[in-house]
Structures are given as structure tokens and as C-alpha cells.
Model the fold of this input.
Amino acid sequence: MARKTVVTGAEHQGQIPPGAPPTKTAFAFDDPEHDDDLRPSSLSEVVGQRKVVERIQIILEAAQNRGDALGHLLFEGPPGLGKTTLAMVLPKEMNSDFQITSGPTLRAPKDLLPYLTRASEKSILFIDEIHRLPPAVEEFIYPAMEDFRVDIALGEGLNARTVNMTLKPFTIVGATTRSGMLTAPLRDRFVNRAHFDFYEHDELATLLMRNARKLKTSLTEEAALELAIRSRGTPRKANNLLRWTRDFAQVRNAPNPISEAVTKDALAMIEVDAIGLEEMDRRYLTTLITVFTGGPAGIQAIGHSMNCPPDTLEDEVEPFLLRQGFIQRTPRGRMVTAAAWEHLKIEPLM
Ligand code: ADP
Done:
């Protein structure tokens, strides 16, 4: 699932060196996936994730006092919780450069090389979905992380030789939704690891009030809380629901600030229920209930029945259902719980 557009600081400034990896430059600002206008621009603007932010503040201050690059950082946690956002704030705090790429787009060492050679001192290289780096690229990255050096193999057969290239001291920030899929050697090369948790309702409500102002609208506190409750604990979802509610209120000529009642009407129209379940979640649960009589069922089988990639289900759908206590993951597969039957108002079959 390559979701992030690959954009580098150098590209913005028109300094793409020849041989740079293929990058997409189209950057749709009205695309909720790339809501850059809503991203915090400093660490103090980051809402929630207090434990992660406090630790980063210490690492930052210590590195800045020593005049060093930050130690490599690994961000773990479900999508939409702010891993990319926090990584983007770091270079602003360090006054350094930022590059972004992702595991699946780095198919061979040659795809990674331009990023490494372009990395300026103390800059951040953000690698999303780092658990999907192919083994050859992973091997190639080890000396870059440990000794700021790459070993480039030139020629073949008898003429083969290895050239060493020194890199500037820089920082890799890796993000993963599946920390369990990371190999031990790669995981061990990250000096700092941070786990991102779902956000509390009051944190999301604060974020929504602020982001509403950035979008030149406003919400009553009750409306912000209603949106927060239905945002499944993620700022990404909160921002998407906010944009939709703003559009809805505008077209319906609703008064400003947007009220709780208008918010509820807006969310009813896109079928987001009282606790934030969407069509896809309901389809997952009803598939598990009707096709697999409540489970246990393997994720592949559920994916086939829903005609949806199992990876998407694991990343986008299951974390919230697990947290909500609607499904259980057992060694034999996924099982639906009594709480889910109850929420969907379906009588259990057994
Ligand atoms: P991830 O990389 O974990 O998938 P992102 O960093 O892309 O998540 O976050 C999705 C969106 O949510 C961002 O565009 C940003 O606007 C918003 N966001 C995420 N975390 C925060 C935060 N802590 N404070 C404010 N906004 C946030």
C-alpha cells in the first residue's frame, strides 16, 4: 500500500540530481491524504502523544547541545497517528533538510543511493513502511546507519570491486505499522524507538478546534467532541471528517460555528455511526458473522470474501475493531465478539 507521495526537499527547490529515484511530484493540497495545511509546523504544535513528544524533546536537545545528528529513530503504530507528521517536524526543529521515501519504492540499493548521497548533515531521511524494504536494500542500509558509509559494488566477475563512500552524519526515521515484521538486525540499528498510541477524545477535540480555524471555519465545543468521538482515535480521520463537515455546513448554509446537530447530519450522510464505524468496518463484521459464522477465520479468507487486500484490512480496519473489543485475534483466526453482535444489533447464532 504505497500511500505517501514521495517528495523531497531537494525536489521542491528544483535540485534533483541526475539518477534520482523516480518520484511523484503531484501534490494535491485538497487531498485529505496530504493535508499539509493541517500538519503542525513545530513540536509544540503537536497535539497528544505526550510520551513520544517528551522523549523526542530530550533527544533533540541533547543532540543540539552536542552539535550531533539525532540517533536513528523508529516510529511504530497504526496508520494516521502522526508518524510522518512528527518526522516532518524534526528538521524544522533542527533547522535541517528532509527527504521522504517508502520501503516498497526502494526496490534495489540503487534506488536508495541518491537519497543517501543527498542527505546533508543532520538531515532527516524518512522511510515509511520500512518493514517492506527488500533484504538487499536492508543490507545496504546497515553501514549507512552505523558508520555513515556505503559499499558500492562495481563491475562483475574478476573485475568486481567494492568502493566505499562516506556519507554526512544524518538520521533515518523509519515508520512501520507492523513492527513485528522488522528483522532483528534492522530493528537493533535504531537507537530510539517510539510507539504511537490512539488519541484520547479530548486531544482530538483540541486538534479539531484548532484545525477548524486553519480551515477558516469554526465548531462549537460539542460539535468538536462529536467529531472526535467518531474519529477512531486518529488525527487523520478527525481531519477528514472535519473537512467533510465543513463542506456540508457550507452547502447547507449552516450557521457558524458549526453546531453538534449539523455535525450529526453531516456524519449520518456518510454513514459514520455513533462510535465511528464506517461501511468498511460493518462489512468486515457482517462478513465474519454471515460467511464465517462469527469465526475463527483467517485474514486471507476474509479478504477474499470482501474482495479487499488483507493488508488493508490489517492496517486500516482491524486496529480499531480490536481496540473496540469487537474482534479477537486468536491462533486459529479472527473471531467476532458479543460486543460486535450487540453493536450491530444482530442476535448471535449460537
Ligand atoms: P502516519 O504517518 O502515522 O500514517 P500522518 O503523520 O500522515 O500519520 O498523520 C495524518 C494527518 O493527521 C497529518 O496530515 C496531520 O495533519 C494530522 N496529525 C497527525 N498527528 C498529529 C498531531 N499529533 N497533531 C496534530 N496533527 C496531527
About this structure: DSSP finds 14 helices and nine strands in the chain. Residues 1-33 have pLDDT under 50 and may be disordered.
